[in-house]
Specification:
two-stranded antiparallel sheet; alpha+beta; single chain; 23% helix; 23% strand; disordered C terminus
């Protein structure tokens, strides 16, 4: 449940209630109440350490934008996506 709340940009859920299970006529219903808490947005995205690669070549590989909800999966995907490019000379070549 925490993963789903974080995926929507809520790093710290304010409150997660214990699951409530109701069983009627051979079916079960499970209810989990979540108060999401404040949403966390990306304030800025910075690139550092890329000495020989122009920023103009790196920026298109970054799908994150200022104001996007914080999402650990999107951040990991952006890092992984930029790492799946190979360097040839001073330019990036996609696989």
């Amino acid at each position: 449940m925490t993963f789903l709340v974080r995926a929507r940009g809520h790093i710290s859920p304010a409150e997660v209630d214990e699951p409530k299970v109701s069983i009627e006529q051979n079916t079960a219903s499970i209810t989990i109440s979540v108060k999401e808490g404040p949403r966390t947005l990306l304030h800025s995205i910075e690139v550092s350490g890329a000495v020989s690669i122009p920023l103009e070549e790196i920026q298109p590989l970054i799908s994150l934008k200022q104001g996007d909800p914080y999402n650990e999966v999107d951040i990991a995907d952006t890092g992984q996506g930029s790492q799946t490019s190979i360097m040839k000379g001073d330019s990036l070549m996609p696989w």
